[in-house]
Amino acid sequence: MADVIYMDNNATTKVADEVIEEMMPYLREKYGNPSSMHTFGGQVGKKVTQARQQVAALLGCEPDEIIFTSCGTESDNTAIKGTLEMYPNRRKVVTTRVEHPAVLTTCRDLERHGYSISEISVDRKGNLNVDELGFRLDDNTAVVTIMYANNETGVIFPIEQIAELVAERGIVFHTDAVQVAGKIPLNLKNTPVNLLSLSGHKLHAPKGVGVLYVRRGTRMGTFMHGGHQEAGRRGGTENVPGIIALGKACQLALAHLEEESTRVKSLRDKLEKGILQSCPDCFVNGETPNRLPNTTNISFEFIEGESILMMLDQFGICASSGSACTSGSLEPSHVLRAMGVPFTAAHGSIRFSLSRYNTEADVDCVIEKMPSIVNRLRELSPFVKSRT
Ligand SMILES: Cc1ncc(COP(=O)(O)O)c(C=O)c1O
């Protein structure tokens, strides 16, 4: 395939070359089982231990608080359902209206099984109403699950403040940090988060590996019954290459966090400014100071996001409309609807999400192509015609 300009990094990321190099020997030569007694397996076990330390360093926590999983979705599901299992007399989950489907559909399923689900709203900029959260907590609440940052808009929630509020009420707090890990600094030692999810393929590790951080002392059910792996919490032979890859990806992310997030943010800002200046009738969704440095979500009035995506695709430019998991459906993004973005503007929204592999030339190319794409689609749009 010809060169692509990849700006869909909130959907998935390129696996870093350094990460591939690190994991390859554990696919080819060092294929031992980390639980085996022999040296051949033992060397693999040591590498898994090192990966656990690397992940813990990125999160600012202890290695024994890291449980490896298969993906962010598994971590989210287990955090919520595993907590409910521990508090059988509590029947309520508090969450937000803008969570990823990994949390929202889990909650909807729980509702069908008799649990009460309370969803906090957001304002027009995508900010969470923290006062509303305070009112929703009660003695029946088993777990609060609120994402660290939104995958569609990049809006970051005040997780430290929320974690304190929830901890004061003695309730378990889970945060989905899938879009955050490797993009902004994290320090779980000083934040009373009980459970936190992350996913390898969002930070330049391969698909098929994730993490659930479980703070020491947090009560949590068994993920999967089986062997003694992951301190007996999640049985099953480890995804060794994936775990080693994730450890390396976390090490790389931590080593370059500050410089990369500054560089990526300046590219994102340039892209955003360039598009807003050259395309009339468009605006940024979730334009708040607290935003992930790599994400911009722009609504183009009177045209369909899907049509823009198809035209971008002809130039090899990859972006997304709504979240990758919901695009393809005719419903506009639940996140933008929760923010009160008008139906037509929500339909015309595009998310560009950058990574350390994007260049200034990528940004210049997108800025150059967008005005002609938008003008062309507007010429064809029945909404524009009906306006004039
Ligand atoms: C915020 C958020 N949570 C969870 C997930 C699911 O992660 P995974 O694809 O690893 O299951 C995603 C994936 O897009 C996400 O953006």
Describe the protein.
- α9 (305-314) crosses α12.
- The chain folds into 2 domains: 5-12 and 257-387, Aspartate Aminotransferase, domain 1, CATH 3.90.1150.10; 17-253, 3-Layer(aba) Sandwich (Aspartate Aminotransferase, domain 2), CATH 3.40.640.10.
- The strands form 3 sheets. Strands 2-8-7-6-5-3-4 form a 7-stranded mixed sheet, sandwiched between helices. The chain has a 3-stranded antiparallel sheet with strand order 9-10-12.
- 42% of the residues lie in helices and 13% in strands.
- The protein is built from 13 helices and 12 strands.
- With 388 residues, it is an alpha/beta fold.
- The structure holds pyridoxal-5'-phosphate (PLP).
- Residues 71-73, 76, 100, 102, 147, 151, 176, 178-179, 199, 210 line the site of pyridoxal-5'-phosphate.
Helix content: 40-55%
Number of domain units: 2
Strand count: 12
- Enter the CATH topology name of the largest domain: Aspartate Aminotransferase, domain 2
Number of helices: 13
User: What is the level 1 CATH name of the largest domain?
Assistant: Alpha Beta
Q: Cα distance, first to last residue?
A: 42 Å
List keywords for this structure.
Aspartate Aminotransferase, domain 1, 2 domains, 3-stranded antiparallel beta sheet, 13 helices, binds pyridoxal-5'-phosphate
